[in-house]
Amino acid sequence: MSFSEKIDEWIKEAEARPASALLVLKLVANRLRELAEQNETLLNENIALRDGTRVEEYQKRITHLEYQLEILKRRVGSGAELPIQAEIPASLLIYNAHGRIARFVIDPAAPVFGKLDGEIVQDGEFPRLLAIPGDEEVLLLFTSGRIATCPVSGIQAMPPGAAWAWDKADLPEEPHAGEMLACIMPLSRLSLADSFMQASRRGCVKKTLTTVAQSILDNRYLGRGAIQKSDQPFDVLLAQKKERYALVTYEGRLMGIDVGDLSYAAEERIRISATDYIIGAFTIQPGQNILCVTQNGKVIQREAGFLEVAKTGASRGQALIPQARLDAGVRFVGAVAARDVDQLVALDATGNLSVHLTGDVAGAGSIRPGAVILSIGLIPTP
Amino acid sequence: MKVGIDFGTSNSGVAIYDGQRVTVLPIDRQNVLPEVVKTVLYVTRDYECFIGQEAIAQYYRDNVNRQRRFVKKWAGEIDVIGADMHFVRDVYVMVDEMKPGRLMQYLKTALRKEGFHGTQVFERFYTPGDLAQAYLGLLKQRAEQILGEKIDAVTLGRPVKFAATPEGDRRAEETLRAAAHAAGFEQVDFELEPIAAALDYEQTLEKPQNVIIFDFGGGTLDIAVMRLGGPSSGSGRKVYASGGVDIAGSDFDRAIIEKRMLQHFGLGRINHQPEILEMIQAVPDWMALPELATPLNRNTLEKAIRAGLAPARLKALQGLIYNDLAFTFYNRVEAAKIALSSQGATTISLDDSGIALWELYTRHQFESDIFDYLGKVEKVLLDTLAASGLEPGNIDAIVKTGGSSNIPLFAGMLARIFGAGKVKQSNAFSSVVAGLAIRAKAG
User: Fold this and answer.
1) B261 DSSP assignment
2) φ, ψ for residue A98 (rounded to 5)?
3) How many whole angstroms from its chain centre is CA B174?
4) H or E element, residue B255
5) Domain boundaries, chain B
6) Number of other residues whose CB lies within 10 A of the CB of residue A156
7) Which of A153, A221, A305, B224 could form a disulfide with B242 if both were Cys (CB 3.0 to 4.6 A apart)?
8) Is the pLDDT of residue A377 over 60?
9) Nearest Cβ partner for B364 among A12, A223, A266
């Protein structure tokens, strides 16, 4: 339909209902005013394009973007873990299921952390540890599948060395009724990663492409990544398509999965007994070993090559704890992928946080004789 | 607390009555009319459910620009039986394993559909009752949030004829009852929708009357020829005949888009690019639009824009498909249609990145665009009247309800057939749910 035909129809409306004539006139006049304003903007833009002002502006912007890209390339290097920058010291986050997060700034020369007083374990959930660069942003995943984000620098830092209790720790995002904080994930490598990898307590794994990350962050919802209602999310991390993902369970089972082989639906990838659950989920980078710690501080280390990759369905995985030790009550409390030069942080039942060189504890086969370990974390060495 | 719920084919609503005043709850704050919530259900891969505009918005958010990966999956097997042979053949379907969720509408129709036992949503099978339960459960949850107290009983509306056969009718009602119980309502009872729509009117009657309920909403036109009793209610009530047709507001929105809007997206300028024409022709179908948002289509549009084929219009089409603007666009069209029931002209405009759409739209244009529907509606009305055995002269009043009944073209038709004095206006968007709330209060 041509524009003149449209005008004829407006005239017909005015003829049929004279009261509409004034309304049509007002609507057309409003449009004319808008178009006149737009016309002036376009004329200005045209002048800027013709005299080269706009071209210069774009050239400056391109130069600035190229500089930023170069900086980003230097930061991420070969795609390995983000280096901890010297000028902004890294932080250790200790968090519990109630959403409380304590942040300690890590002194690279002699890391000292306070002693956790009072009730250490709340609702049967052990605290968890995460070392992270100070200029990072973190994603908080709750057991309902809801997410929240906050900068690490926004979490109140605790004074090093002093005793502290959970009520002194920061609460950047309070869990809603009926949900708990499942885990915390660093977010700055999001644009460089291919997918989010979620693991549930009962061994379900779900992959979500980072191409939908904007929608996930806008909706503040990633999903539980679990099939059973009674199951809960345990961990989420960012992974590349060709990486190898490992799950470690409380009763000492180890399962390897190729990230690229996983489907996008949550599916059970490790078949575990009724009393077992996932205590470690991580990707393995070149040069890293798998390091598992038992509740009495014994360390079991395996080379990355030990990990067998399961191609299909749910299997029981590889056993890391011999049956006799299992019968004696030995269980894992944590597992990480670490290099010998990295530092291992351990939280014991008295609330003390101790730092050890990974190579040393792997060699000695134990963290601290006599200590009851609740949780471990890793401080990667740049 | 007891509420009235109108579980409609295309729109639903919840209302309460305190003995003095009916309050229709603003269940869907994202809707043009917050008291009306679209009967659509979106189930994500994590089996999280959304309803109303939230469901549609989530559907768009999840589907626009998303990646797709089709994998071959075994769906079942077919027995092939010939004169002297019998073999079994496996059937495979291509499934998009990255599909983030499934949007479902016409949940009420599913209840009465013969031979429809349910649908597979990812790994779970949902019966029609499960779908109704999920929807009613969320409706209840939202109503409880607004009211701040627990709702334990409900009066649900039901059509005069739920299904073609009495057995189907009974089964559909029982399925809906079980779904309501499963959604958390301890006490569930039913009222006929036309009676609910006429309840306000019936209470004003001093003596019995022959009345036509003309319920012309968003999804369907339902007509019931009834005899209504006086305020003592019920005693003289009788349904002579009922009828309906799948013509309603959504068809008029579609007509506006097809006849007035598609040219803004390149119709008439693009002639020899079937892929692009297919995209343009899909614009009126709001459910199809996110499916178009594939990387392949984006490339096709980019190439055409670079080649100078109606670049401004194709940029607008690209913006509509990829910039999450479809939802806003359909709301603008619907708002224009509603405005034309009370004024002679309005505009449909959308100004966003890549789109500068402006259309002056008059009632004259609207009436010419939907004129074909007038004859069909008139025929259904007269057929239903004939089936009742009554003549137009025997009808004492026409009670019109539903948003589309306010369209002057149809209001004029009713006045022409029955006389302007007999046409009574009921609350267009909430008379059914209001009547159900009154019935709920009465117990």
Assistant:
1) I
2) -85, 5
3) 22
4) helix B249-256
5) 2-191
6) 13
7) B224
8) yes
9) A12
The token duo for A252 is 């000492």
Q: Quote the CA–CA distance of B221 and B217 in Å, as a whole number.
A: 6
CB-based contact B274:B282 (threshold 8 Å): no
CATH superfamily of B2-191: ATPase, nucleotide binding domain (3.30.420.40)
B58/A219 CB distance under 8 A: yes
ipTM confidence score: 0.71
CB contact under 8 A, B362 and A20: yes
Share of chain B above pLDDT 70, in %: 96
Closest chain B C-alpha to A294 CA, distance in angstroms: 34
Put simply, whether B106 touches A (Cβ < 8 Å) is no
Neighbours of B136 (CB within 10 A): 27
The span from the CA of A83 to the CA of A76, in Å, is 8
pLDDT in tens, B392-413: 999 999 999 888 999 999 999 9
DSSP string, B16-38: EE-SS-EEE----TTSSSTT-EE
**Pairing mode, strands A318-319 and A128-132:** unpaired
CA distance B116 to B126: 11
- What is d(CA B59, CA B290) in angstroms, rounded to the nearest whole number? 8
Of A9, A211, A224, nearest to B364 by CB-CB distance is: A9
DSSP codes, A166-187: GGGSB-SSPPPTT--EEEEEE-
Q: Which residues in chain A have Cβ-Cβ distances shorter than 8 Å to B365?
A: 9, 13
| Residue keyed to tokens 């343009």 | B280
> Taking CB atoms and an 8 Å limit, are B364 and A16 in contact across chains?
yes
Rounded CA gap, A184 and A245, in Å?
18
pLDDT 10s digits, A245-265: 999 999 999 999 998 888 788
Measured between CB atoms, does B294 come within 8 Å of chain A?
Answer: no
- At A159-192, the pLDDT tens digits run 887 888 888 889 999 999 889 999 999 988 887 7
Element (H or E) spanning B399, and its range? strand B397-401
B360 touches A: beta carbon within 8 Å: yes
Residues from chain A that touch B46, judged by Cβ atoms under 8 A, are 145, 223-225, 266
Contact (CB<8Å) A13/B364: yes
- Closest-CA residue to A182 (of A246, A248, A235, A126): A235
Q: Do B344 and A6 touch (CB under 8 A)?
A: no
Residues of A in contact with B45 (CB under 8 A): 223, 264-266
Rg (CA), chain A: 28
For the entire predicted model, the pTM comes to 0.57
Between chains, do B46 and A145 touch, taking CB under 8 Å as contact? yes
Closest chain B residue by Cα to residue A9: B365
Q: Does B406 touch chain A (CB under 8 A)?
A: no
**What is the per-residue pLDDT across B343-373, written as a single tens digit (0 to 9) for each?**
999 999 988 777 889 999 999 999 999 999 9
Whether B62 and A215 lie within 8 Å, measured CB to CB = yes
Instruction: Give the separation between CA B173 and CA B162, rounded to whole angstroms.
Output: 8
Alpha-carbon separation of residue B424 from B209, B213, B216, B284, B437 (angstroms): 13, 10, 14, 33, 21
Q: How many CB atoms lie within 10 A of CB B335?
A: 14
* Residue given tokens 């539980």 in the structure block: A224
Consecutive H or E run containing A33: helix A18-50
Domain positions in chain A are 3-76
Using an 8 Å CB-CB cutoff, list chain A residues near B368: 9
Which residue in A17, A31, A209 is closest to B344 by CB distance? A17
Max Cα-Cα span within chain A:
97
B277 touches chain A (CB under 8 A): no
Check: CB of residue A116 under 8 Å from CB of residue A165: yes
* Beta carbons of B362 and A13 less than 8 Å apart: yes
B345 contact residues in A (CB cutoff 8 A): 10, 13, 20, 23-24, 27
Q: Which of B69, B263, B362 sits opposite A24 (nearest CB)?
A: B362
